[in-house]
Amino acid sequence: MQQQVTWLKFLIGIAAIMGVVFCIMIVPQLATEYTEVPVKPFLWISAIPFFIALVVAFQMCSSLVQKSFSSHIMNYLKILRALASTEALLYGIALLAIFILGKASTMLVVFCLLFLGMAIVLVVVLQMLYTACKEALQLEEEARLTI
Amino acid sequence: MAIIVNLDVMLAKRKMTVTALSEALGITMANVSILKNGKAKAVKFSTLDKICEVLDCQPGDILVYEKEEE
User: Which residues cross the membrane (chain A) (predicted)?
Assistant: First the structure.
């Protein structure tokens, strides 16, 4: 388990580095290309839930070492689900705004759809994981209280 | 729950302590306490078998059904 957790933490670190690189290097370039829409502030704001989610995932990994199914893990999953929902909502609003403002260039729409799709998939997976974890916790409690 | 565990009553009748029972049954004190306090969700037949053997009683002496008031 410790080895898996270390690997997961390493992956979280890689994701964080990629996120920072994206925010520092890619976002300003995108902002210069699409001046008619506030790309830079939006992407920086949408990066906040992403980085919070990485911190929460990192803390969750530490909790996994102690116990795989616990109320702590459930809480972390709930927070992650809320963050993914926020991300989906942000990109949904952005997509709507792009269409309303009439600035719907193919790249912007593809970009928003991609992030929206990923966020929705994350919400679904996290919800399923939350339900499975809840069930497992109940089973574990039943097994513990079976004498 | 509607099922009441009367283990403490049987223990008193047999003048036996929880420690002695847990040693005789070969299960931990914590588990005997869970059973005695009615916090157990299920009882294995093997455990019930051992309890009946040690306390020289019937399952009905330990487990009682009481209808819950609505």
Answer: 7-30, 42-61, 82-102, 108-130
Contacting A residues, span 115-144, partner chain B, CB-CB under 8 Å: 141-142
pTM score, whole prediction: 0.75
* Mean pLDDT confidence for A123-127: 96
| Min distance A140 CA to chain B CA atoms (Å) | 11
Chain B: nearest CA to A72, how far in angstroms? 23
User: What whole-number distance in Å separates Cα of residue A87 and Cα of residue A81?
Assistant: 10
Domain ranges of chain A: 2-144
Q: Is residue B70 part of a domain?
A: no
Residue A1 has what DSSP assignment?
-
| Residue B50 maps to a domain | yes
ipTM value of the model?
0.73
φ, ψ of residue B56 to 5 degrees: the values are 50, 60
For residue B15, tell me if it sits in a domain.
yes
